[in-house]
Amino acid sequence: MLDLEIVPERSLGCDAWEFVLGMHFSQSVAIIQSQVGTIRGVQVLYSDQNPLSVDLVINMPQDGIRLIFDPVAQRLKVIEIYNMKLVKLRYSGMCFNSPEISPSIEQVEHCFGATHPGLYDSQRHLFALNFRGLSFYFPVDSKFEPGYAHGLGSLQFPNGGSPVVSRTTIYYGSQHQQASSSSPGGVCGAPLPELPLSCYRHQLHLRRCDVLRSATATQGLRLHMFTEGPGRSLSEGGAGRSVCRVVRFGSSAQRVCAALGAPARTYYKADDKMRIHRPTARRRPPPASDYFFNYFTLGLDILFDARTHQVKKFVLHTNYPGHYNFNMYHRCEFELTVQPDKCDSNSLVESRGAVCITAYSKWEVVSRALRVAERPVVLNRASSTNTTNPFGSTFCYGYQDIIFEVMSNNYIASITLYQPEGTRPRYAVNSIA
């Protein structure tokens, strides 16, 4: 049984780890993965067809805890303890819920102090005690009418008849009504705090990515980011600061590292497995492999040419649940403006306006505006030769110098921006703002 500490309006955790309001989904998953054997039977709940309108939920049924994430920002907004019998709970070191201690109204008031009168829902027969950032819900028998003693939110009960907490919610702010529903979909309006400083972890985080383009070609990316403030540690109350950098095609690996810092991982493209069958395979040394810089908190991959070590491709990830790479990247909040190709039909040239594409655009709208007619390439990933992708295939469409990877629900999984072979400069373009 987990023994956890509640911090109203902030977190639920212990000395080794804690779930903090505002933390990213991937950081919560990393905590759970580090507690294999202690936290078991975890479920991830999401809407396959409406991933932006239904909350993203991590359910821990064996511990009676549910983590509810904003579907757009993918950050934690509500912590719900829906089975009090499966967990021990403390506040400021004082235990108020355990197999030996029943979380009655009197026990809660003794531990947390006085509050303003609670709220009674006569239709659901549910009584709520609300503190800032914390609510307790008590099921009440219909024969008891709400009455208050000494200005506190207590009902009048016979001896031994006081109800016990059935559910507890931790949230940001004082809008307890927005977190009062027992269903995950009922907390969509709960306020969302900023990313806590304890979750920065000395990494850059993305606010917005502007794709820089000429009429029909990509030039680079302008990245608006934030990180911890210089010269002050988190324990000293260091604040975040904003950073803006521009990375272009042709920039060297050194320049990219100077602008964005060291990548979270470097990935070398796999060698051609059929090369060993060629007659010249034994006589020629294998060529060097192109390599990616993976920036997971930016939702960005940058591909470098193995020979020149210059940028030749960007991959922007949208991190939708149901995709093969879900939870590897934070969502890249990009804005891509595309000028459609001119259409020549019956000797008449039709002019169309620019199309703005974001991480939330649906492909059916984008393809209609751009009039993408070519058939897609079907992409089916697998973790090994003996396993299949449980999420199914995605579909890749090419347009100008862009490749759109589209999921079966019509949302864009990733966008690849590349520089055509004939347009690459011989020398690096090292202009980084």
UniProtKB/TrEMBL annotation:
Any Pfam family: PHAF1
GO cellular component: trans-Golgi network
GO biological process: Golgi to plasma membrane protein transport
UniProt cross-references to InterPro entries, sorted A to Z: PHAF1 (IPR005373), PHAF1/BROMI (IPR039156)
Family: Belongs to the PHAF1 family.
Name recorded for this polypeptide: PHAF1 protein CG7083 isoform X2
Source organism: Spodoptera frugiperda
